[in-house]
Amino acid sequence: MTDPPARFHLTLTAVGRPAMHGWWASEATARHKATSWIGEYGSLPGARITLTDEAMGETLTTWPDGA
């Protein structure tokens, strides 16, 4: 059995530069990771966390809101 494709892409930028990213097949897992990253990395200067559904081409959430 093959794993489902990892379509949910989470990115962290800090001071306008890419700092970290990850891919997950499960939206629930990706959203949990996004919350975790906010707690772990949200205090970095200029931190921005974005969760995108790459299959649909949609941004699902960003932190901080409206950033």
Which key terms come to mind for this protein?
single chain, four-stranded antiparallel sheet, alpha+beta
Description:
By secondary structure, the protein is α+β, with helices and mostly antiparallel strands. The chain is elongated.
Number of helices: 1
Helix content: 10-25%
From the N-terminal CA to the C-terminal CA, the straight-line distance is 40 Å
Oligomer: single chain
Provide the number of structural domains: 1
How do the helices and strands line up, and which of them pair or pack?
Blueprint: E1 8-14, E2 17-24, H1 27-41, E3 48-53, E4 58-63
Antiparallel strand pairs: 1-2, 1-3, 3-4
How would you summarize what this structure contains?
The chain is of the alpha+beta class and 67 residues long.
